[in-house]
Write a structure and sequence with these properties.
Elements lengths: L1 H12 L25 H11 L15 H13 L1 H23 L3 E12 L5 H7 L7 E15 L4 H67 L5 H35 L8 H5 L19 H4 L1 H21 L5 E13 L11 E10 L5 H69 L5 H35 L6 H8 L2
Antiparallel strand pairs: 1-2, 2-3, 3-4
Helix pairs in contact: 2-11, 3-6, 4-6, 6-7, 6-10, 6-12, 6-13, 7-12, 10-11, 11-12
Length: 488
Amino acid sequence: MLFKRTLIMCAVAGVSTACTVGPDYTRPETHLPERYLGQAAVEQRYANAGTGADFSKWWEGFGDPQLNRLVTLALEQNLDLAQASARATQARAGLGAANAALLPSGAVSAQAARAYSSVETPLGQVLNAQPNFDRYGNAYEASLGVGWELDIFGGLRREREAAIAEYQASAAGVAATRLTVAAQTADIYISMRGLQTRLDIARSQVRTQQELLATINLLYGKGLAAELQVRQVEGALAQVKAAVPALEAGLEAAMNAMDVMLGTPPGTHREELATVRPLPAAPQIAPAGSPGDLLRRRPDLIVAERRLAASNARIGIAVSEYYPKLSLSGLIGSATSLSSGHLFTGGASQSAAVLGLRWRLFDFGRINAQIAQAKGQEAEALAAYRLAALRATEDVENAMSNLVKREDQAGILAHGVDSLRLARKSSFAAYQKGVVSLIEVLQADDKLLQASDMRTQAQTESTRAAVALFKALGGGGQLQDAEAVVSR
């Protein structure tokens, strides 16, 4: 009964007041906390420094010109970003097709034909008996056809809504890819500089052990040291040397990964990247709003929300199949045959007007299934959007915690390295005086190496956590295009 009433109302309303069936989209509410758990610590970190990085080009806050150049190059050349841009172009074309479907379409056609009739055929024999029979004949035709589907029940408008949402999702996807490319480039660069610093520490320790071995060999040659001591130092030296190839392999892998990020074959920028530079320090990060702000800042959440809007519009597309489709078409043209030469004259004109109807009247079972499928897809998209919002908040919390804790760890280890460096110096002096054994010296060397390496790793991870936090918060300038598209 309700279906019949809706059909009658929409049919009476006609084109001027066309109905749009299906649910209208409303952005879903998300229940997120007012503040991040780690926000107070980050705000305190910012307050202690009094300055913060610019979110529009957050990578410049690390104060490394080479990092800035590499990120800029990656944003120009990265192939993942090229794919995302191509997908946006495709989605824009789909939007154009959806807009065109709402408008009348026209086509011009024309043809000319020349025919020859053989007198050997039965028809040719009959015609040949006629006076002035011309075995050659010409036919000409030209026409203009126009068609228009009347979107009375809004199926085409829902298709346009879906196309707009998909285009907005693809545009936000480009912004999300830009943010990911910038963050991955910065992360690889920082990891590479961290590995270089760790290599310097390991190689410095190798030199220290070699100097110690030279001293012990000198004492051994004079009979002042036992062979056991020589072998102990040789074993310690081998252990330190063994760490170098593993670090070198990791560094080469990071350089190869950087080349791929830049859209070039591995090895292209090896000479430039091999130049040792200091590990960048994590910049100060200004407080960046509440978890609810992520819904407007993070492009991947914009992608999820726009795909939800598209799935909602597809429910309306499926519902519109309950109702009849009306179309208008017309033809105007001219046609003539043989050799009269009267094309475009009154006697050769032709015209037609057609009102078309298509109604899946006995196919409601299949339509019901299509509606159920569309609703299921919408429910899936809604769950995906809410899960994306939760995971985005998780990303921010983890990055905040990792940044603050790793900086605390690096500070503690820096103090420990200073103490262990003095302890190693004292132990070697005591060994030379015969107060302690060589074991104490080797233990001091090992502890100093471990602490120095751990401090570098903590510094690297704290800087990488800053990159992760910028990414988790949605970056800055990457969002301008996506926000502009969604607001249209």
